[in-house]
C-alpha cells in the first residue's frame, strides 16, 4: 500500500512538473548552446541553437516560433521533414513524442541521446549529440528502428534538423566541377527551399560539397557576425535543405539524399544516419573555420597531430609513359630537392591489358612486367636509398571493360541490367561495393599489395567516375533502392578494415581531384587531392573555398610545370611554391625539366617549408584578403596555437597601379606581443615591405595593418613572424 502511494506521488509530481516546469535538454560547449524543450504534450522542440546560454529562465515562452526537433511527415506541418516512413500497414503518418533522454559528460565530450517514439506505432527515433567543449562543435545523428510486423519503408531519414530565427540569412556554399572544385559562393536566402545536394553516388564532392556556412542577421565578415557552419560526414549522396518561411524562420535539414534511395527497414533493424557536424560562431566565419579545423585535426582526420611529408607525385611529370629508369631519375631529382615521399601514380599495372592509357587495365592490379620488370620492390628500395619513402596510386573501386577483371567478374560491375548498354565515364565502370564479395576483393587488392611490399608508406586512392549505371546484381530486386547507401557503407567498411590493419600507411583521398573532400573520407585518410587543376592562380580560389571547412594540413597542393598543363598559364616557380605552401606542399613534375637555378630555388623553398611546416599544418588559418573580392590581392595568415609564431602569405593576382600596395591587416596574433617580421622564400634581395626584420607589435599588425609592394600579376611574398619578448 505504502509503495503504491509513493509511486502515485511520484506520478503526480511528474505530471505537475511537466505541466508547470519546462524540461530543457541543454547540449553545450564552451561558447555554444543547443537547447531542446519537452512541452506539456511531450512534444520535443528545439528552442535555441547559437551562443551559450547560462540562464534559461523564460526560454520556455519562446518556443512558439520553432519547429519540432525532428519533424516527421504527417504531424500536421507542411514543411520539409526529417523523417518520412510508410509503416507496415501502409499508412504514412509519423508523429514523434519524447520518451526519455540520457546525458553524459567526460572530459571534453558531452554526449546526449534523446529517445522519441511514434504516438501509435512501435516506431522509434533516437537523436544523438556529441558536444565537444573546447572546439564548440556538435555532432548530430539519428538511429531509426521499429518493431512493426512487416518492413517499414523510409523515404526520408535525415541526420539533423536545426532551426533559427533571424532578420535575414546569407548562405555560403562550395560548388564546382572537375578542375574547378570548391568555388566559394555566398547568396542571400529568399523564401522557399534552397537545396544543396548530389545524386552522383561516388565522387560526390566534385560539384557541390556537403558543407556550408550560414550567416544570420546580415552577411558575416571573416571576424564579425553570427555564423553556423556545417559539414556532413558521408561520402555518398547528400542533401541539405534550407527552408526559409514567412515567419523568417530558417530550418536546415541535412543528411543522406533520399533521392532514389527508399530504405526498407525490417523489424529490430537499425538505420544509423551519418554525423552532421555543426559549429556556431559569433565572431564571424573565420572562427567557425578554426573551430572545425581544430576539431577535424583532433577527432576526424587520421593522425591530425602528425606532420605531413613533402611528396613528389609522378602524374604530371610522366603520365602513363615511364619505365624504372625514368622513375629513378625523377627520384634522384626529388631527393636532391629535399622531397620526402615519392609517389608512383597511374600506369604501373596490367599485363594482358596494360595500363598505358585510360582505356584499359583498371582492375588488374599486377605490376606491368614490360615497364617495370624488376617490380615495385626495386623502386621502393631505390626511393629508400635516396632517403625517401615510397607511395603508390590505386583506383580499386573501378574497372575498365578491357581488363581481366571485367572478363572474369562481369556480375561485380554496377550496371543498368536488361542488356542496356553501359554508360562509360573515362572509359570505366564501377564495382558494386554493396556486394560483400566485391568489398573483399577491394580490400584484398590493397592488402596483398601492402603485405607483399610492407615498405609502401603511402596510398593514393583515386575514384574517377560517378554511379549512373544504376543497378546491382547483388542487391535483391526489391532492395535496388539501397544501392546508393549500401555502396557508401561498403566503401566505408573496406576503408575501416584497412585503417585498422595499416595504421601507419598514409592514405590520400583523390577522386578526379577534389571529388572526395568530405568528413567521412577524412576519417580514413590523411589528406585529399584538392583539384587536378594545379595552376596556382586557380588553386588560390579552390584552396580558399576548401579551407573554409577543411584544414590546410589535409589539403594536398603541388608545384607543377609552367606553362600549366591545365590552363597554359605561365607563373614563376616562386608563385607556384607560395601557393602550394599554403597547404600540404608537394611537387608534380619531372625534376630533369628544371634548370639549375630552379632546382636551387626549389631546394631552398622546401627547406623553408620544412621549417615553417608546424605553423602551416598545426596552426590556425586566418583569411585576410579574398581572391574573390576582385581587389586583385589575396592574403592568408597562419598562427601557431601559442601565438608566438605566424606566417603571412600575400598574393597579387592582377596588375596594380604604380602607387597601389597590398594593404593587409593580420589576425589572430597576440596584440601585446612584439614580432620580428622577416620576408622568407625570397627570389631576390629586393624587399617588398621596406622594413625587413623590423620589430612590430601584434596590435599594429592587426589594427593598423602593413603594406606589401606587390604590383605585378602573379607575384607573391611570404613573411615569418616570430615573437621576440
Ligand atoms: C585522376 C587524378 C590524378 C591522376 C589521374 C591518373 O585524374 O585526380 O591526380 O592520379 O587520375 O589517372
Write up this protein.
- This protein is an alpha+beta fold and 725 residues long.
- The chain has three domains: 2-300, Distorted Sandwich (Beta-galactosidase, Chain A, domain 5); 311-614, Aldolase class I (TIM Barrel); 622-723, Sandwich (Immunoglobulin-like), CATH 2.60.40.
- The strands form eight sheets. Strands 5, 6, 7, 8, 11, 12, 14, 15, 19 and 20 form a ten-stranded antiparallel β-sheet that branches.
- The protein is globular, with a radius of gyration of 27 Å.
- The termini are far apart.
- The model is unreliable at 1-20 (pLDDT under 50).
- The structure holds alpha-D-galactopyranose.
- Alpha-D-galactopyranose binds next to loops.
In short:
By secondary structure, the chain is of the alpha+beta class. The longest helix is centred in the last third of the chain and has 23 residues, at 596-618. Alpha-D-galactopyranose is lined by residues 315, 345-346, 393, 462, 464, 510, 512-513, 529, 532.
Amino acid at each position: 500500500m505504502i509503495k503504491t502511494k509513493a509511486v502515485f506521488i511520484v506520478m503526480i509530481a511528474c505530471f505537475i512538473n511537466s505541466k508547470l516546469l519546462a524540461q530543457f535538454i541543454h547540449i553545450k560547449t564552451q561558447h555554444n548552446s543547443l537547447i531542446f524543450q519537452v512541452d506539456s504534450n511531450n512534444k520535443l522542440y528545439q528552442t535555441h541553437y547559437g551562443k551559450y546560454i547560462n540562464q534559461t529562465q523564460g526560454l520556455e515562452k519562446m518556443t512558439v516560433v520553432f519547429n519540432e526537433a525532428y519533424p516527421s511527415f504527417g504531424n500536421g506541418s507542411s514543411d520539409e521533414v526529417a523523417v518520412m516512413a510508410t509503416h507496415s500497414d501502409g499508412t504514412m503518418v509519423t508523429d514523434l513524442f519524447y520518451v526519455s533522454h540520457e546525458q553524459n559528460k567526460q572530459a571534453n565530450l558531452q554526449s546526449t541521446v534523446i529517445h522519441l517514439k511514434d504516438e501509435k506505432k512501435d516506431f522509434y527515433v533516437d537523436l544523438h549529440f556529441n558536444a565537444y567543449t573546447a572546439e564548440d562543435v556538435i555532432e548530430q545523428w539519428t538511429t531509426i528502428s521499429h518493431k512493426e510486423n512487416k518492413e517499414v519503408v523510409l523515404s526520408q531519414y535525415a541526420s539533423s534538423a536545426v532551426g533559427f530565427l533571424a532578420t535575414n540569412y546569407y548562405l555560403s556554399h562550395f560548388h564546382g566541377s572537375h578542375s574547378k572544385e570548391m568555388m566559394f559562393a555566398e547568396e542571400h536566402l529568399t523564401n522557399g527551399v534552397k537545396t544543396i545536394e548530389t545524386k552522383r553516388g561516388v565522387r560526390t564532392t566534385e560539384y557541390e560539397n556537403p558543407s556550408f556556412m550560414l550567416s544570420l542577421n546580415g552577411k558575416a565578415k571573416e571576424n564579425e557576425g553570427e555564423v553556423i557552419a556545417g559539414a556532413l560526414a558521408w561520402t555518398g549522396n547528400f542533401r541539405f535543405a534550407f527552408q526559409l518561411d514567412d515567419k523568417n524562420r530558417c530550418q536546415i535539414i541535412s543528411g543522406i539524399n533520399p533521392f532514389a534511395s527508399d530504405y526498407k527497414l525490417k523489424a529490430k533493424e537499425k538505420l544509423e544516419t551519418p554525423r552532421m557536424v555543426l559549429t556556431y560562431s559569433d565572431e564571424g566565419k573565420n572562427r567557425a573555420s578554426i573551430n572545425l579545423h581544430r576539431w577535424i585535426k583532433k577527432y576526424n582526420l587520421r593522425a591530425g597531430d602528425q606532420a605531413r611529408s613533402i611528396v613528389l607525385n609522378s602524374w604530371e611529370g610522366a603520365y602513363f609513359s615511364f619505365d624504372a629508369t625514368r622513375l629513378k631519375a625523377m627520384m634522384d631529382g626529388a631527393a636532391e630537392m629535399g622531397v620526402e615521399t615519392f609517389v608512383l601514380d597511374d600506369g604501373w599495372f596490367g599485363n594482358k591489358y596494360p595500363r598505358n592509357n585510360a582505356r584499359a587495365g583498371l582492375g588488374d592490379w599486377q605490376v606491368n612486367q614490360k615497364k617495370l620488370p624488376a617490380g615495385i620492390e626495386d623502386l621502393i628500395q631505390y626511393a629508400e636509398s635516396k632517403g625517401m619513402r615510397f607511395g603508390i596510386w590505386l583506383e580499386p573501386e573501378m574497372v575498365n571493360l578491357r581488363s581481366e577483371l571485367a572478363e572474369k567478374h562481369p556480375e561485380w560491375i554496377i550496371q543498368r541490367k536488361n542488356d542496356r548498354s553501359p554508360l562509360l565515364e573515362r572509359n570505366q565502370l564501377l564495382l558494386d561495393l554493396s556486394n560483400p564479395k566485391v568489398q573483399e576483393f577491394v580490400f584484398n587488392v590493397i592488402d596483398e599489395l601492402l603485405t607483399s611490399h610492407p615498405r609502401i608508406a603511402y596510398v593514393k586512392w583515386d575514384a574517377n567516375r560517378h554511379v549512373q549505371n544504376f543497378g546491382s546484381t547483388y542487391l535483391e530486386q526489391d532492395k535496388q533502392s539501397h544501392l546508393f547507401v549500401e555502396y557508401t557503407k561498403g566503401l566505408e567498411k573496406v576503408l575501416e578494415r584497412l585503417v585498422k590493419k595499416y595504421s601507419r600507411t598514409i592514405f590520400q583521398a583523390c577522386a578526379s581531384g577534389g571529388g572526395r573532400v568530405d568528413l567521412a573520407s577524412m576519417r580514413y585518410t590523411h589528406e585529399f587531392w584538392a583539384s587536378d587543376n594545379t595552376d596556382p592562380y586557380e588553386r588560390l580560389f579552390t584552396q580558399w573555398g576548401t579551407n573554409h571547412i577543411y584544414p590546410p594540413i589535409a589539403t594536398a597542393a603541388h608545384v607543377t610545370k609552367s606553362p600549366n598543363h591545365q590552363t597554359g598559364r605561365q607563373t614563376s616557380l616562386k608563385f607556384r611554391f607560395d601557393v602550394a605552401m599554403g597547404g600540404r606542399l608537394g611537387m608534380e613534375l619531372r625534376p630533369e625539366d628544371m634548370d639549375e637555378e630552379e632546382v636551387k630555388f626549389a631546394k631552398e623553398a622546401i627547406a623553408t617549408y620544412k621549417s615553417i611546416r608546424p605553423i602551416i599544418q598545426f596552426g590556425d588559418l586566418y583569411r585576410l584578403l579574398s581572391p574573390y573580392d576582385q581587389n586583385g590581392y589575396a592574403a592568408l595568415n597562419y598562427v601557431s596555437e601559442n601565438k608566438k609564431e605566424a606566417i603571412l602569405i600575400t598574393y597579387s593576382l592582377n596588375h596594380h597601379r604604380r602607387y597601389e600596395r597590398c594593404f593587409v591587416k593580420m589576425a589572430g596574433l597576440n596584440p601585446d606581443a612584439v614580432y620580428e617580421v622577416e620576408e622568407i622564400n625570397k627570389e631576390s634581395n629586393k624587399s617588398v615591405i621596406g622594413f625587413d626584420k623590423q620589430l612590430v607589435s601584434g596590435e599594429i599588425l592587426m589594427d593598423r595593418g602593413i603594406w606589401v609592394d606587390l604590383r605585378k600579376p602573379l607575384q607573391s611574398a611570404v613573411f615569418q613572424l616570430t615573437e621576440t619578448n
